[in-house]
Amino acid sequence: MGALSNMEALILRNDNLSGQLPSSLKNCSNKLALLDLGENMFHGLLPSSWIGDSLHQLVILSLQFNNFNGSLPSNLCKIPSSLAHIDRLTMLDLSNNRLYGKIPIGTQLQSFNTSYFEGNSNLCGEPLDNKCPGEEPSKHQVPTTDAGDDNSIFLEAFYMSMGIGFFTSFIH
């Protein structure tokens, strides 16, 4: 557990990993800022019991292009409300999974680019244009600018290179 608690970045993108997210990831809680498990074959529920509560240091969480789903018959998965409690999160990519329901309201979840949620046809709520059943159109729109997109791309690239450098330093 000692090695996991000191890990700052974990990038396992496009590695043909499958199964449910390992619960041992919750032991990375002390310093883990970057978790990129995108483009794998993970399935099952996003673990609401620890993903937002234990991994509260996350800055980047990338889980796109997996197959997160719930139990039958719907076989769909909700975004855990605990993700709204991560106040350092600057990038969250949950696109192209089988997520459904309302995007949890949190300090920054509504400010993320809509592309980070696309490919989840049953997902609704801000920042998406797809309103949830019984939801009134928002009277206050979050202004978007191209500069914000440029900043998020810069931050994503910065943190990815930071993670790669971090892991490279362990190899040598």
Could you characterize the architecture of this molecule?
- The chain has two helices and ten strands, in the order αββββββββββα.
- With 172 residues, it is of the alpha/beta class.
- It has one domain: Ribonuclease Inhibitor (Leucine-rich repeat, LRR (right-handed beta-alpha superhelix)), CATH 3.80.10.
Short description:
The protein has helices at about 1-5, 145-170, and strands spanning about 10, 20, 35, 40-45, 60, 65-70, 75-80, 90-95, 100, 120-125. The protein is of the alpha/beta class. It has one domain (about 1-170): Ribonuclease Inhibitor (Leucine-rich repeat, LRR (right-handed beta-alpha superhelix)).
Number of strands: 10
Q: What percent strand?
A: 15-25%
What's the helix count? 2
Average residue-wise pLDDT: 80
Structural domain count:
1
Shape: globular
The CATH architecture comes to Alpha-Beta Horseshoe
Helical content class: 10-25%
The structural class is alpha/beta
What CATH first level would be assigned? Alpha Beta
Low-confidence stretches: 140-147
List keywords for this structure.
2 helices; alpha/beta; four-stranded parallel beta sheet; 10 strands; three-stranded parallel beta sheet; Leucine-rich repeat, LRR (right-handed beta-alpha superhelix)
